[in-house]
Amino acid sequence: MSRKITIIGAGSVGSTIAYSLSQEELASEIVMIDINKDKAEGEVMDIEQGTCFRESISIIAGDYPDAKDSDIVIITSGIARKPGQTRIDLAQTNVNILKSITPQIVKEAPNALYVIVSNPVDIMTYVFTKISGLPERQIIGSGTILDTARLRCGLSEQLQVAQKNIHAYVFGEHGDTSFIPWTGAYVSGVHVDEYVEAAQRMGKDVKPINKDAMIEYVRKSGGVVIAKKGATFYAVSRSVCQLCKTLMASSESVVTVSSMMHGEYGIEDVCLSTLTLVGPEGISGKLPMRMNKGETEKLKASADALKAVIAQIDL
């Protein structure tokens, strides 16, 4: 089946997503759009020359009309946070970029599913939801998919068990107010705390989880990578590709993506990540996960932090 994916933004994240998609059998067409046309053309040329080892695929550096009939549009445009720049400064700058992009891309691809990756992703998802005019089901912020992947990586190393067996999630903002609802953290059907006890009885050198340290690991991983190599793009690209697979699958999956809240957990008019049912029609709805009072309060605090930023930006 012919599938078309358009990526807006040919920076490190957008280009790595394009490369990752080019190595999968997900898309038969990939369009890259960037204000710097030479950069987009260079990325496409480099990626295209490595596609002779797979089934034929069309990859072009195009303009907005080339996005016509896209199944998925991935928005990665924006600038990275600079030293001394506040989150609000970053938010307003990237919101302004998104406001210029949105009418151009929506005009050409009104039926596509939109994956918002640009940071601050929850704010950008909110703005796109408000200004695009599209049904909310078509708008999916990458949210805490990456945070959840980082959590499972950290738990896998500590618990000495495969990541695929770990069912634990990061909720809230993709940022400083994210949190782990440990009430719903399991290794297969066993709660993580019970798993530690069982592993110890087996003679394994598994320590109890330092839950404060684990959320710090999740929150600070991006900063550590940036400090060491200058940018993060591999893990987020794989996360976005996995989300694209979900959007093109024959059945739905539960993922932590950012989308508009409508009273769930007592939260409204803000985009953040909770358990969400996603599939080929986009977002079907949110799944209520049992959380204790403290966890629910953390989710509300995350929502309030995002609302405080929204209140200070020009929509």
TrEMBL record:
NAD(+) binds at residues 9-14, 34, 39, 64, 94, 100, 117-119, 142. Pathway: Fermentation; pyruvate fermentation to lactate; (S)-lactate from pyruvate: step 1/1. Its EC number is 1.1.1.27. SUPFAM superfamilies: LDH C-terminal domain-like, NAD(P)-binding Rossmann-fold domains. Residues 4-141 form the Lactate/malate dehydrogenase N-terminal domain. It is found in: Cytoplasm. Catalyzes the conversion of lactate to pyruvate. PANTHER family: L-2-HYDROXYCARBOXYLATE DEHYDROGENASE (NAD(P)(+)), L-LACTATE DEHYDROGENASE. This is L-lactate dehydrogenase. The gene is ldh.
